[in-house]
Structure formats: structure tokens, C-alpha cells
Amino acid sequence: MLGNLGLVVGLALLIGLALRGMNILLAVLISVGVIGLTNAMSFNDIYLQYFPFGASGAFSFAGNFLLLFLCGAIFGRIMAASRAAQSVAVTVTQWLGAERALWVAMLVCAVLTYGGVVVFVVMFTMYPIGVTLMKEANIPRRLYAAAIALGAGTFTMTAMPGTPSIHNVIGARSLGTDLFAGAAVGLVASAVMIGLGMWYLQWRWKVATQQGEGYQATDKDEQMRKLAETDKAIVPWGLAILPIIVVLGSILVPRLLMMASIESSWIGFANTNPILWASFALLLGAFTCFVLFPDVRKVFSVAAGEGANDAIMPLINTAAVIGFGGVVIQTPGFSAFAEWLLGLPLEPLVSVFISANLISGITASASGGLQIFMSSLAESYLAAGVSPEMLHRIANLAAGGLDSLPHSGAVIALFTLMGLTHKEAYKDVFVVTVIIPMIAALVAVALALFLY
Predict the structure, then answer these.
(1) Per residue in 1-41, pLDDT tens?
(2) Measured between alpha carbons, how far is 27 from 18 in angstroms, rounded to an integer?
């Protein structure tokens, strides 16, 4: 009883400390100490074994995914330094118009993240452009933040087939599938997230306008506006999108060749080593920027170095939250929780939806929850007859539900960047990153049960 209470208190403490702005690594270390005390676990086991080096330990995760985080951040920096990312954003804006700023934000974020640019870099890329869009369209900053969250942190993260996101790679690496597993249900889930998400944001914008709420500039907004203004001409959009096409094509081609029954050693390597191959694709995209854009050649090494620095904090913060989950799964309470989940008289895919969601809720991280799910529960669902491809996609979709709770690192980063508080903006972000993705995941489960 005390151990179960300790789990609840530890999780509540982690959320509370994160909401108060404490560094997530410190918050995790304090919270796992509370869980350890209430579950009669030794500090030696907690801090020197389970948290850093367990099957779902912080350093275990960081060691496995350092290369992907690194290459993704480098590609994002090179895209920004070449102004290719801004070119993509400006072009979409010209096509759709400033009055469709929410659609612009969502679509540009989706294109960039689907192309491999890490979420944190997308935030910094979109904010300077967004300052102008928000002012021209008189959009409340909280709704623009929610549009960024929808485009960068939902369907391109867990649903879209082929995305090089960490979440998609975890599923492929753990189950021996590829990045296109469960493509049909993933596409349907993506459509649900886009449709419902944009309907909600447009409705909220209409209500805000009727109530006289609009854009209110901050000092940081003025600084960001200057950052977006430059005398350098942006590159043509046709060239700007080529690096993204290179990244996606590099991931897609081996899959298509395998489907065409073409065999070779490199095709086999690409389809069986998703971390290395996705990392290679991202580096190839960065090299494409080097070839296409003369200006970036002068600062290539500097931008790549900054990208390497960009990778560290997202990796450490994600790893820390995973380490929290790594301690949780060692407690007696979690073992009983897992047995209860597996023993529920439900269809296996429905059980996958529930279990992956709850575990991601505990860690407030889709990647962290998914890693723990794959290491602790996946084998049981495979033994129950769930195909690896369906398990891959449904678990990914489910992990993208409760992951965006208030102590989520990405949520905190977005609010900090835009000068927002949870009280001001979390409601809208919660709807588009928690409620709607859960609805989409349930639709995907229903479709999978009907089709398969």
C-alpha cells in the first residue's frame, strides 16, 4: 500500500516541480528518491543501477539514441543556417495567406518534423516567423503555440508512416519492423488529428475574436521579429525543400526496393538498422544543404557544432524522464500494474492502447513511455497474437496521448520560448496533443480490428 502511494506521490511531485519551473533532471532525481524510500529500494540500486543503466535507464537510452538526436539537431541547424527552413515557411505563408496563420504554423511544422528536423529546432525556427504572422492576423499567442504543438508533436511524431522520429525508430528497433509499419492505420489517424485539431483551433480563434482577444506583443516578440528580418535573400522554395526530400527519400527507397523483392546487402542493412539508417539520411540531408546553398558552406562547421550542442539538452531531458520510468518499473507496484493490464479481458490492441497511454502518462514522454512499453510488455502482446506491424503503430499512437502532461519537456520548452504560462496556454495544447491524439488512436484501433 505504501509503495503504491509512493508511486502516486512521486509522479505528482515530478509534475509539481516541473510546473514550478525546476530543471527536469533535478525534479526526476528528487522524485525517484521518494519512490525508492516508499518502496524500500536501496539508493545504490536506484541511482547507480535502475536510473542510469537499467533496461530502461537514462544512460541506456542516451547511448542507443545519441546518434539520432545528434544527426537530427545538426540537420535542423544546417536547414536554419541555410535559410531553407525559413524559405519553406515563407512559401507556405504566401500560398495560404497570413489570415490562415494557424494552418501555416501547423503545416510548416509538420513538413519540417516529417523531414527529420527535431521538435526543439522547429520551435526556434517557427517563432520568429510566427511573430509577424500573429501580428498581421491578430492571433492570440497561446493559439499559435497550440498550432506549433499540433504540427510538430502529434501525427508526424507517432502516426505518419516513414517519419524518422525517435518514436517510430523505437518501435522499429524493438520489434524488427520498419518505419512504415501499419501505414494504413497511421494515415487514417493522421487525418483525424489534422482534421479535429485544426477544427478546434479555428473554433477557438473565432471565439477569441468575438471576445475581443487578440495578439499581444512581448519584449521577446520584438527581439524575435528582428531575428527574422535580414538583408539576405531566402533561397528558392524548390531548392529549400530538396534536403527534406533527400531525407525522406533515403528512408523510403530501401522500403520500396524490399517491397519490389529487390535484395542487396545495403537494402537489408537499411531495413534492419533504423537508427543508423535514419541518422545517415539526416546527415545526407545536411550535406545536400552544403552542396546546394553556398552561404551555408562558410558556416557549416560552426552550424554543425551548434547542432551538436542543441542535441544534448533534449537528449538528457528525455533520458532523465525515461530513467524515472526505469525506476518505476522496478517497483512491486508497477509489476502488479503490468499484470493487471495484461489480465484485463480486452482485445489485445485495446489493451495496448491503454497500457502504452498510461505508461507514457507516468513518464510524460512518448519516447520514454514507448521505450518502457517495448522493454516490459511488448513480448506479452506478441505472444497474444498481435502482429509486430500493428503493435508498432498502435503503441506509437497510444504513446502520443498522455505524453504531453504539464511536466513534458517539450511543453515546458515551448511555453518558455513564447513567454507563456501553463495557466494561459496549457488548455489548448492539452486538447490538441492529448485529447485528439487519444481519439485518433482509438479510431486506429477500431480500424485495425476491422481490417485485420
Answers:
(1) 676 788 888 888 888 887 777 888 898 899 999 998 888 88
(2) 7
| CA 260 centroid distance within chain | 31
pTM above 0.70, yes or no: yes
User: What whole-number distance in Å separates Cα of residue 323 and Cα of residue 327?
Assistant: 6
Question: What mean pLDDT is reported for the chain?
Answer: 85
- Report the alpha-carbon distance of residue 239 to residue 351 in Å, rounded: 45
Condensed to tens digits (0 to 9), the pLDDT of residues 116-145 reads 777 776 777 677 677 767 877 888 999 999
Cβ neighbours, 10 Å, residue 285:
30
Count Cβ atoms within 10 A of the Cβ of residue 312 and give its class: 0-12 exposed, 13-18 middle, 19 or more buried. Answer: middle
Secondary structure class of 292 (helix, strand, coil)? helix
- In whole angstroms, give the CA distance from residue 366 to residue 121: 18
Q: What is the pLDDT of residue 227?
A: 46
C-alpha to C-alpha distance for 29 and 426, rounded to whole angstroms: 25
Give domain limits for the chain.
Answer: 2-451
Give one word for 221, left, alpha or beta, with left for phi > 0 and alpha for psi -120 to 50: alpha
Rounded-to-integer distance, Cα 343 and Cα 257, Å? 41
CA dihedral 30, 34, 37, 39 (to 10 degrees): -130
pLDDT: which is higher, 133 or 169: 169
Rounded mean pLDDT, 381-403: 92
Q: Quick check: 420 and 452 in contact, CB under 8 A?
A: no
Contacts of 303 (CB under 8 A, 6+ apart): 74, 77, 78, 80, 81, 296
Looking from the CA of 109 toward its CB, the CA atoms found within 13 Å total 31
Nearest residue to 431 via CA among 158, 143, 160: 143
